[in-house]
Write a structure and sequence with these properties.
By secondary structure, the chain is an alpha/beta fold. The protein folds into two domains: 11-275, Dihydropteroate synthase-like (TIM Barrel, Alpha-Beta Barrel), CATH 3.20.20.20; 285-396, Sulfite Reductase Hemoprotein, domain 1, CATH 3.30.413. 40% of the residues lie in helices and 16% in strands. It is built from 14 helices and 15 strands. The strands form three sheets. The protein has an eight-stranded parallel β-sheet with strand order 8-7-6-5-4-3-10-9. The protein has a five-stranded mixed β-sheet with strand order 11-12-13-14-15, with helices on both faces. Strands 1-2 form a two-stranded antiparallel ribbon. Helix 7 crosses helix 8 (203-216). The protein is elongated and about 75 Å long. The model is unreliable at 162-166 and 414-431 (pLDDT under 50).
């Protein structure tokens, strides 16, 4: 069962042409990412946005540090079919220009755009955007941006609190105080289509910050870990706090951030939502054993080949198990819709617990794809259902053709085959 989610206000991002993504309320958790290229390079930016949308991104953010970037939005937005967020940091004018260009959401940084008059101009523009329906604003009180940057004395005082013995407590106090001050401007202007983020490279601070904010505000929360690093380490740094928060019912939209191709951000974010039951899976649900000394096929290659082969060939969330031996294989074959477990350079394929084929190792990939396609066709036709177990599977004889004792039998050495099966059991020294 998916976790019970905290109830929040709902905001809408997008329009009739791009489709509307709802954040908060009863809407599913959405996935966001950000382009890595320059926004003013229109063709490249459009191509990247479309690639990210095809990977499963619900919303894509672009940087607009310069006027040439907001000018480019006028050409970019008509060419894409996913809502676009303009990331505004240092000049409120970029926000006004982005709104005029037709952007679907604005991200403001309280640490950089502090002038109340400027903020109110952005609020007014967002209220009138989208034909008067308005567009939302994300307020990002991230660790790297909330401490004072211009006033050196104030900055030193704030940093003195942040880096004291109780770092999280002081930092959270600053974060919450600045968030409340900033939100007061929005409330005074009768603007509530707000999304809040509170990112940090410290996963424990991320958990604490979002937990505290969720207790104080009913606005939807944009979860993320900033400066997470490369995918190899950033995946752990991101998934641990975000998974914890989502499993606790906190969070309405997410962005995993890597110093890598943002397609990986989308793929990993979606997988996290799938395993938590927060999004309905699209495509194959692949599981595989972690390998051990029992495997008798090239499991690493087989698993990756299956993953790539099925990625674009299967639409339904068929559970596929690829197991490298006969120890765990039968159990996984019962639990999966389509499964293969291998031994002695060959594999046995099961469909919902029913044995359908035994093939040489070189034929496993094609045979597995064929069975997945046939099973998917049955599900679509209403002749089968996902997740139904049909029969009980008895594991093959461990000393038989697929078992580890095959070579001993072939050599005529059967005296020690079976080990414990032919040796009396002894417990605490007693026969």
């Amino acid at each position: 069962m998916p976790p019970d989610r905290r109830k929040t206000r709902q905001v809408a991002v997008g329009d009739e042409r791009t489709g509307v993504v709802r954040i908060g309320g009863d809407a599913p958790v959405s996935v966001q990412t950000m382009t890595a290229g320059y926004t003013y390079e229109v063709d490249r930016c459009v191509a990247e946005i479309n690639k990210l949308a095809a990977a499963g991104a619900d919303i894509v953010r672009v940087a607009v540090p310069n006027k040439k970037d907001t000018e480019a939005l006028k050409q970019i937005i008509p060419q894409v079919r996913v809502p676009i967020v303009a990331d505004v940091h240092f000049h409120f004018g970029r926000a006004l220009e982005a709104v005029e260009a037709g952007v679907h959401k604005i991200r403001l940084n309280p640490g950089n755009i502090q002038d109340r008059g400027h903020v109110e101009e952005v609020i007014a523009a967002c209220k009138q955007a989208n034909g008067g329906a308005g567009i939302p604003i994300r307020v990002g009180v991230n660790e790297g941006s909330i401490v004072e940057r211009k006033d050196k004395q104030k900055r030193m005082k704030e940093l003195g609190g942040v880096f004291s013995a109780h770092r999280h407590g002081h930092f959270l106090a600053i974060m919450l105080a600045k968030l409340e001050e900033y939100l007061d401007i929005f409330y005074d202007n009768d603007f509530y289509d707000i999304v809040i983020s509170a990112k940090s490279p410290d996963p424990t601070l991320v958990i604490d910050a979002y937990t505290e904010i969720s207790k104080r505000f009913d606005h939807p929360l944009h979860l993320g870990v900033t400066h997470a690093g490369p995918r190899e380490t950033g995946s752990i740094r991101s998934v641990v706090p975000l998974g914890h928060l989502l499993a606790s019912g906190v969070g309405d939209t997410i962005r995993i951030s890597y110093a890598n191709d943002p397609v990986f951000e989308v793929e990993d974010a979606l997988e996290m939502l799938y395993v938590l039951g927060l999004r309905e899976r699209k495509g194959v649900d692949l599981i595989a054993c972690p390998t051990c000394g029992r495997i008798e096929v090239d499991l690493f290659t087989l698993v990756q080949d299956v993953r790539h082969k099925l990625a674009n060939a299967i639409e339904l969330p068929i559970k596929v198990a690829v197991m490298g031996c006969i120890v765990n294989g039968p159990g996984e074959a019962e639990g999966a819709d389509v499964a293969v477990f291998a031994g002695k350079q060959r594999g046995i394929i099961y469909v919902q617990g029913q044995k359908v084929a035994t093939v040489p190792e070189v034929e496993i990939l094609d045979a597995l794809l064929d069975e997945c396609r046939k099973f998917e066709a049955k599900v679509k036709a209403g002749d089968a259902k996902l997740g139904e177990k049909v029969v009980e599977i008895a594991p093959p004889d461990p000393i038989g053709e697929l078992g580890s004792g095959f070579e001993k039998i072939a050599a005529g050495d059967t005296e020690h085959v079976g080990g414990a099966a032919t040796t009396p059991l002894t417990v605490e020294g007693r026969p």
